[in-house]
């Protein structure tokens, strides 16, 4: 069964950091692009960042440039989203998604909650 599982979310103070993980099971993630999306309360889901199967990174949200990075470990079949200098406006549910190309949009994980608050 194809499955994506996000983890690593939580409550963090402004200026803090979190690393989200997107682990795949049932298929080999290295053949796919993986995108991170987020949905803030009352807002539509938006793309954040994506990494292709060739490790090309694409940002979809200007506000995270310089703060968020994406990486993949094909041995662990996992993609990571490193989030630094977090701001309250980064609060939301973060999802990962696969696709043949960025931004993804094929299989989706269940999401992990990120809350940035003092």
Folded structure, characterized:
The protein is mainly beta and 118 residues long. Helix content is 0%, strand content 48%. It contains no helices and ten strands. The strands form two sheets. A six-stranded mixed beta sheet has the order 2-10-9-4-5-6, with no helix packed on it. Strands 1-3-8-7 form a four-stranded antiparallel beta sheet, with no helix packed on it. A hairpin with a 5-residue loop joins strand 5 and strand 6 (57-59). It starts with a strand and ends with a strand. The mean pLDDT is 96.
What's the gist of this structure?
The chain has about 120 residues and is mainly beta. Helices cover about 0% and strands about 50% of the residues.
Would you identify the regions where 5 or more consecutive residues have pLDDT less than 50?
none
Q: Sheet bearing the most strands, described?
A: 6 strands, mixed
Order of neighbouring strands in the sheet with most strands = 2-10-9-4-5-6
Query: How large, in whole angstroms, is the Cα Rg?
Result: 13 Å
Through-space gap between termini: 40 Å
The protein's oligomeric status is single chain
**Shape, per Cα inertia axes:** globular
Number of helices: 0
Mean pLDDT: 96
List keywords for this structure.
single chain; 118 residues; mainly beta; 4-stranded antiparallel beta sheet; 10 strands; globular
SSE order and pairing:
Blueprint: E1 3-7, E2 10-12, E3 18-25, E4 33-39, E5 46-51, E6 57-59, E7 68-73, E8 78-83, E9 92-99, E10 112-116
Parallel strand pairs: 2-10
Antiparallel strand pairs: 1-3, 3-8, 4-5, 4-9, 5-6, 7-8, 9-10
